[in-house]
Amino acid sequence: MNIYVFQALNGLGLGMIYFLLSVGLSIIFGLLGFVNFAHGALFLVGAYAAFFTNQATGSFALGLIASFVCVAGLGLVAERWLLRRTYKMSHEAQILVTVGLTFVLTEAVVYFFGPESQRVAPPESLSSVLMIGPYPIPSYRLFIVIVCGVIGVALWWLFERTMFGARVRAGNERPQMLKLLGTKVSRVYAIAFGLGTGLAGLAGGLAVPLRGADPSMGVEAIVIAFVVVVIGGMGSFSGPLVGGLIIGVTQSMMSAIWPEGARLAIFLLMVVVLLLMPKGLFGRA
Questions:
Q1: Cα–Cα dist 222/39, whole Å
Q2: Considering only CA atoms, which of 9, 22, 282 is closest in space to residue 145?
Q3: DSSP H stretches of helix in 58-138
Q4: Is the distance from CB of 27 to CB of 240 less than 8 angstroms?
Q5: Residue 41 — φ and ψ, nearest 5°?
Q6: What dihedral do alpha carbons 103, 235, 262, 245 form, nearest 10°?
Q7: Dist. CA 71–CA 48, nearest whole Å
Q8: Which among 43, 124, 150, 230 is most buried, taking Cβ atoms within 10 Å?
C-alpha cells in the first residue's frame, strides 16, 4: 500500500505541470476559440530555454523566468504576424498552420541543440526529500505543487475577477460589442495568447528536472494537454486543474501497477468522461 501512496504523492507534482500546460491551452482554445496544435512545441521551447539559461548562468530561477518570457514573446510574435490571420478561418486551417509551426519550432530546437536529450538538475535547496507522515516526497515536486498552485489562484483572479478577464470572455462571445465599447479586441487576444503560451513554456521549464529535455517532448505534451482539457472541460480554469491532477496521479499510479498501460489508462479515462459528460467535468456550453 505504501508504494501506491508514494506514487500518488509524486503524481501531484506531475499533475500540476499538466495543469500549467493545459490551462494555457484552455485560455487559447476555450476562451479565444483558436485551435493551437503548436502548444506542445512551445512547451518544448520553454524546456530548452530553461536548459540554455541554466547552463549559461548557473541559475535555476533565471531558467524558469526565461522559459516563460521567451515563449510568451515567441507566442506574441507568432500571434501578431501569423496566427491572427487564421482566426476567422476554419479549425482545419488553424490545425494545419499550427502543425506546420510545430515542425518549424521542433527542427529549430534540433538544429541549435542537437537531437540528444539534455538534463537540468534541480537546485541543491530542492534536491532533498521531505517526509509527509511516513511517506517521502521529493522537495522539487512539492515546489512544483506550490508554484503551480499560486499561479492557478492568480489566473483565476485575473480571468474571473478583473476587467481584463471580462474583456477576454466578451471578446470571444461578442467581439463587435466589445469594439463598440472602445476596446481593441486584437490587443486583448494578443495578451491572452501570450499569457497562454508563456504558461506552456513555464511548464516546460518546470518539467526539465523531472524528465529532461528532448525534441520529442512537444508531441507528448500536446497529446497530454488535449486529454486534460477534454476531461476538465474547455473554457474552465478549475477543469485543467482537476483534469491535470487526475491524469498525473493516474499515470503515476499506473506506472507502479502496470507500466505498459500507463498511457492507455489516460485515454480510456478520457473516453469514459466523454461518454458520460461530453463537455468535460467543468466545461462551459
A1: 6
A2: 9
A3: 60-81, 91-113
A4: no
A5: -65, -35
A6: 120
A7: 10
A8: 43
Q: Where are the domains of the chain?
A: 16-217
Question: Is residue 68 a contact partner of residue 202, using CB atoms and an 8 Å limit?
Answer: yes
Q: What is the largest CA-CA distance in the chain?
A: 60
Residue with the three cell numbers 510574435: 77
Does 180 score more than 80 pLDDT?
no
Q: Please, what sign has the CA dihedral across residues 33, 37, 42, 47?
A: positive
Which residue bears the cell 512539492? 142
Q: How far apart are the first and last CA of the chain?
A: 40
279: cell is 463537455
Rounded to whole angstroms, the Cα distance separating 69 from 10 reads: 28
Q: Which of 24-38, 44-58, 153-167, 198-212 has the lowest mean pLDDT?
A: 24-38
Which is nearest to 81 in space by CA: 11, 159, 186? 186
Which amino acid makes up residue 96?
L
Residue (of 24, 45, 18, 52) closest to 36 by Cα position: 24
**Residue carrying C-alpha cell 524528465:** 211
| pLDDT computed for residue 121 by the predictor | 86
